[in-house]
UniProtKB/TrEMBL annotation, chain A:
Protein name per the record: ER lumen protein-retaining receptor
Organism: Cannabis sativa
Spans traversing the lipid bilayer: 55-77, 98-115, 121-140, 152-170, 182-202
Subcellular location: Endoplasmic reticulum membrane
Molecular function terms from GO: ER retention sequence binding
UniProt keyword terms in alphabetical order: Endoplasmic reticulum, ER-Golgi transport, Membrane, Protein transport, Receptor, Transmembrane, Transmembrane helix, Transport
One GO cellular component, as annotated: endoplasmic reticulum membrane
Domain of life: Eukaryota
Amino acid sequence: MNIFRFAGDMTHLASVLVLLLKIHTIKSCAGVSLKTQELYAIVFATRYLDIFTDFISLYNTFMKLVFLGSSFSIVWYMRSHKIVRRSYDKDQDTFRHYFLIVPCLLLAMIINEKFTFREVLWTFSLFLEAVAILPQLVLLQRTRNIDNLTGQYIFLLGAYRAFYIFNWIYRYFTEPHYVHWIPWIAGLLQTLLYGDFFYYYFHSWKNNKKLQLPA
Amino acid sequence: ERNESIKDEL
């Protein structure tokens, strides 16, 4: 464990807690893309298949349970909670996320470190995570404005993977033959995808005005 | 072994 990875995990934890608290307290999911939340639930489900077979540490297992529990709770809230589901904007949240799942699965069948069931799904979860934010960013472009909590959620989500990149650099220089191109490239792509959002988020924060995304 | 080292990450 190093400071970059710990910061990344805490930032990631903060992002899901911000979203869960928002939905739980104000009983609204306005501006939140259910598609992105469903993609994240799939990411965690396919990433953490080893949760019951490979015990790494209490921290590792605890965090996996938190990420699985929070992502599935958010999906449940947005689909089934009688009050929250009313604020879900399904007419605007129309990104066909199956167009992301199938290519990521095919790519994971081709590009992986070893062709086993768990390794392919683990690789799939990396590719899917890299693009999972797309429905949310498309929804924001459509609805134009963004409330603070959703903005913070996306910012934290982008920041966590940026911290992980520093973690990978650190581990590359401190651990012999720690080389993993697949997560590195997927993680870099993912962070770049947040790039323009960060740009507008930073400028809105600097000018202390409401975050407006260009049409 | 080599490619398991990253599996300790979330």
